[in-house]
Each structure stands twice: as structure tokens, then as C-alpha cells.
Specification:
The protein is α+β, with helices and mostly antiparallel strands. 31% of the residues lie in helices and 23% in strands. It folds into 3 domains: 121 residues, Tetratricopeptide repeat domain (Serine Threonine Protein Phosphatase 5, Tetratricopeptide repeat, Alpha Horseshoe), CATH 1.25.40; 258 residues, TolB, C-terminal domain (Neuraminidase); 111 residues, 60s Ribosomal Protein L30, Chain: A (2-Layer Sandwich), CATH 3.30.1330.60. Strands 2, 3, 4, 5 and 6 form a 5-stranded antiparallel sheet that branches.
């Protein structure tokens, strides 16, 4: 009797093994690996019908349905493998939810995330909780979309190649970007390009011939005073790591390229530089040790001859996942960046964080919302000095691969619009004379007319928020005696100094001087010239 039982068991195992047609399964796998998806699918369906309890065909069939974007069919195949009531299958159930999440089907994703959390609270906290929050946020965002109307910048900028990484100058006159093209050796290569705006028309884009090489150059940014370019070069002979940051100055007419040095560049990945509008700080991306995980945003102080030791932007901005493409708006108080680690709609979303002034901490980041963000990657968004006009790269429509688009931000996510005086300040290099418009004094007096207060209030606010040092200058024309003009110019510059002190600007940020009639900008031989020479101005120290 015992021998008969053993023979029966062996026969049962053999019959069960015969039901698993490994030869056909291997054939379907070969079809799949050679991208013959329909043939693989048809064969797997037949195998699954004959042996519905064999997991492998269902799992491979689910992969095929995912590749064909047939997610509900993939779901059915996976439910033949994973039991919705079994804690042992919690990871598989989570993977079904993640499939829907990664493809923007958030309500379906949330259903499976909730089941995973019901089955295993520890697993939920470790792996599901964040994606649950993202799904809930995404569902709400889609129900409350942002006003969004992207416009392609046209064929003078975009081409059949990929354009990305836009940067805009502080006066909106020039756009800089990266183009991925095919070089003479038939290899893909990234180069730097620019286009200039004449009225509302962008000129035909031109390459930065002095900056480009046969290597990959990209992620270009220009300081607000147009004096320094910073960009990324990968695999350069003098590099410290895979990708490094380099800069070029207008002192060499942008012909000389220099490394940002060993404090900025490391044996890790360092890229995507962006200057603060006052030119005092460089923001960039690095995966060096000492961060919070993945790639982080780092900040280096810019000195006359070198870049200072970087500090991490901190845990309010950086997360355990990747942050990318920092852009500090010209208001010096609004930071746009891309992140995988803050609650969003999947992969990289674009966020903004605000601060009250340059000495304050960054506030909790705000997601820019749907449809600016969606389940695909979004990054490299920059905003004009008006705080409203945004530029970004996308491949959803255009002349070829990625193109550069523009759109208007709504009030909740726009930056601060810059006053013309502030644009003058950030567009000027240290030591340049910046003329204060609409500054008037009572006739032949050093007493400020009240009409001057508006411009001086704007200046005071900027000085307080940005902690810069200026020298106030008084100038006259040549009407009257040289001595009297000298005294008058000194008293007028002091009146401006006193008013700014009254508006809570620190004395350490201010000095004043009078030049009388000694530094005319125009001829004093006519009324127009004399009017322009009678001015109040300042220089950033």
C-alpha cells in the first residue's frame, strides 16, 4: 500500500509539471525580449488558460500589457497572482498601485495603496505613505487646475533637435538654452545657444562658439549684470568628476573658460548653476556627501577671485530623494526647483519656496499644481523679472523633440514683479552709476520734494532685503558757482542718506558724497543736457 501511494504522488507531481509548458513559456519570453509583443501575448494567454495557477505567464503578460499601456488588463493579470486579502502579497498589491500611480491614474492607485496599508501598517509607513499623499494631492490638483496656456517660442529658437534648460536675462532681452544635436562624428552632443529679442520677436538662435566643444556643455546661466556665465561641462580633461561647473567672464569677452574650482567641483556630480540676482551667491546641484540624499541644492558665496565653500540649502528644500534645476528669481526671494521628494504628481515636479528677505529661511515648498505638473518629469522652469512670465522645456508638442515654451503663472505661484529701479540695480555691475529717477528737490535747495519718496522707499526696501552697500552721489550742472554747486550736491546726497536711514536702512550700508558739476554725463551747453546732469545717483560697493 505504501509503494502504491508513493507512485501516485510521483505521478501527480509529474502530471502537474507537464501542465507547465516551459518550452512555450520560453518561446513567449523570447518574443517579448525581441519586442514581438502581440505574439508573446497570444501565446501567454493560451498558456495561462491551460494552467491558471502558474504565476510566471501572468506576470510576463502583465509586463506586456504595461508596455502597451493597457493597464486594466495588466491589473487583471496581476490579480491572478496576488491575493487582495493576503498580507503575504502586500508588496505585489502595492506594485499594482504603483503601476497606476506612475501613469497618472491616481484614483486607481489610491485604491491599491489603501489596501496595502490595511494589510500591513509597517509596510505602509515604510513604502506606501508618501505615495498615498501624492495620489491624494494629485486627485485634488486635477480637480482644481491652474490656468495654463503654453506657447511655443517658435522656429528661431526651437528645431528638430531637443532644446532644454532655458535661462532668461534680467532685462528679458536674451534667452539662453541647451540644444542636443548630432555632431560631425554622428554622435549626440549638447551645446549652448542664445537668442536675442527685438521688440517681441526672438532672433535666430546662435551657438556660443567660444564656449562649445566636442564635449557636452549645458545648463547655462548668466548673472543678472551679464558679467559672468556659468555652465556645466561633462568629462572634461581638467574636471574633478563626471560633470563640473565652469564660468566665463565679460572681462575676457567670454573667450576664457575657467573651472569654478575644487570647492564647487568634486569627484561627484556637480551641475546646473544659477546666480542670485545680487551676484553674491551661486546655487547648484550636487550629489556629494553631506546632503540629505540623492542630488541636493547647494549654495556658494561668490567672491572677487573665487567661489566659497558650498553649504547645503537645508532640509526644507532638499529631501532624501533628488532635487534639480534651481532657479532663484530676480526678486532674490522666490526659488523655483524640481524635486522627487516633496509631495507631487510623480517623478520630478516643479516647486517654489519663498523667503521674506535674503537673511530669512526658506518656507515650505509649494507645488505649482496641475497641469504645469503631471505624472511625467517637469523641471528647468525660469521666470522673467515681471514675476509672471515663465519659460520651460517640454516635448508634448513642437518642432521635434523637446522645445522651449512660455506661459503665464497665476497669482499664487508667480514671483514678485520687479520695479524698474530694481531691474537697474540687478542689471548693473558693482561700481556702475545707477541714476535715481524721479528724485526732486525744492528750488535751489537740498530739501527733498515729497514726489521723491516713492523711488526712495523702493530703494530702501531693496537695501534692507538684500543687505547691499551703496554710495549715494549728488551732481549738479554748471549753472552757478563751482563752490556753491559742490556744497549743494553734498547736501542733496546727504538728504537722500538721511531719508534712507529714516526708512530703517542701516548706516553701515550707506555713504554719501557730492561731486558738484565735476562729472557731467552730457553737454552743459543746452537745457536738455543741463537737466540730465543735475541728478542723484548711487553705486553698489
Amino acid at each position: 500500500m505504501r509503494i502504491v501511494l508513493i507512485l501516485f504522488l510521483l505521478l501527480s507531481v509529474n502530471l502537474f509539471s507537464q501542465n507547465k509548458d516551459y518550452k512555450k513559456y520560453d518561446k513567449s519570453l523570447n518574443y517579448y525580449q525581441n519586442n514581438q509583443l502581440d505574439k508573446a501575448k497570444d501565446l501567454l494567454i493560451k498558456i495561462s488558460v491551460k494552467n491558471p495557477n502558474w504565476d510566471k505567464p501572468h506576470l510576463l503578460l502583465a509586463n506586456i500589457y504595461k508596455d502597451k499601456f493597457e493597464f486594466e488588463n495588466a491589473e487583471k493579470s496581476l490579480l491572478n497572482v496576488f491575493n487582495l486579502s493576503s498580507k503575504d502579497d502586500v508588496d505585489g498589491i502595492f506594485q499594482i498601485g504603483n503601476m497606476f500611480y506612475e501613469n497618472g491614474l491616481y484614483e486607481k492607485a489610491l485604491d491599491y495603496f489603501n489596501i496595502s496599508c490595511f494589510l500591513d501598517d509597517v509596510f505602509c509607513k515604510r513604502k506606501v505613505k508618501f505615495l498615498k499623499e501624492c495620489s491624494e494631492f494629485s486627485i485634488s490638483s486635477i480637480k482644481n487646475p491652474k490656468n495654463y496656456n503654453p506657447i511655443n517660442l517658435g522656429s528661431n529658437i526651437n528645431s528638430s533637435f531637443s532644446e532644454n534648460g532655458p535661462a532668461i536675462t534680467s532685462d528679458d532681452s536674451k534667452i539662453l538654452f541647451t540644444r542636443r544635436l548630432i555632431n560631425d562624428n554622428n554622435f549626440s552632443q549638447e551645446d549652448l545657444f542664445y537668442s536675442e529679442r527685438n521688440d517681441s520677436v526672438w532672433s535666430l538662435a546662435k551657438p556660443f562658439t567660444n564656449l562649445n566643444s566636442n564635449l557636452n556643455e549645458g545648463a547655462l546661466s548668466l548673472s543678472s549684470d551679464n558679467s559672468i556665465l556659468v555652465f556645466t561641462v561633462c568629462n572634461k580633461e581638467d574636471g574633478f568628476g563626471s560633470c563640473d561647473l565652469y564660468f566665463s567672464s565679460n572681462k575676457s569677452d567670454f573667450n576664457e573658460i575657467k573651472s569654478c574650482g575644487p570647492l564647487i567641483n568634486s569627484k561627484y556630480w556637480d551641475a546646473q548653476g544659477c546666480f542670485s540676482s545680487d551676484g553674491r551667491y551661486l546655487y547648484f546641484i550636487s550629489n556629494r556627501p553631506g546632503g540629505y540624499g540623492g542630488t541636493d541644492i547647494w549654495i556658494s558665496q561668490v567672491h572677487d577671485n573665487y567661489f566659497g565653500k558650498p553649504v547645503n540649502a537645508g532640509p526644507t528644500i532638499n529631501t532624501s530623494k533628488d532635487e534639480m534645476s534651481p532657479f532663484l528669481h530676480s526678486d532674490n526671494k522666490t526659488l523655483y526647483f524640481a524635486s522627487k521628494g516633496h509631495v507631487g504628481m510623480g517623478n520630478f515636479d516643479v516647486f517654489l519656496s519663498r523667503r521674506s528677505d535674503v537673511l530669512s529661511n526658506w518656507n515650505e515648498p509649494l507645488n505649482l499644481g496641475y497641469p504645469i505638473n503631471n505624472y511625467l518629469d517637469q523641471n528647468s522652469l525660469v521666470v522673467s523679472h515681471n514675476g509672471k512670465t515663465a519659460y520651460f522645456a517640454s516635448d508634448f508638442d513642437g518642432f521635434g523633440f523637446e522645445d522651449i515654451f512660455t506661459f503665464e503663472l497665476d497669482d499664487l505661484i508667480k514671483a514678485n514683479k520687479l520695479n524698474e529701479l530694481v531691474v537697474k540695480i540687478i542689471s548693473s555691475q558693482n561700481g556702475d552709476e545707477i541714476i535715481l529717477d524721479n528724485i526732486y528737490f525744492l528750488n535751489n535747495s537740498f530739501s527733498l520734494d515729497t514726489i521723491s519718496f516713492n523711488s526712495l522707499d523702493i530703494l530702501a526696501k531693496y537695501l534692507i532685503n538684500n543687505n547691499i552697500i551703496i554710495s549715494i552721489e549728488g551732481h549738479t550742472n554748471n549753472i552757478g558757482s563751482t563752490y556753491e554747486n559742490q556744497i549743494l550736491s553734498e547736501l542733496r546726497s546727504k538728504s537722500v542718506y538721511d531719508y534712507l536711514i529714516f526708512q530703517n536702512v542701516k548706516e553701515s550700508q550707506l555713504s554719501y558724497i557730492g561731486f558738484g558739476e565735476s562729472k557731467p554725463l552730457y553737454s552743459n551747453d543746452n537745457k536738455e543736457g543741463r537737466t540730465k546732469n543735475r541728478r542723484t545717483s548711487f553705486r553698489i560697493q
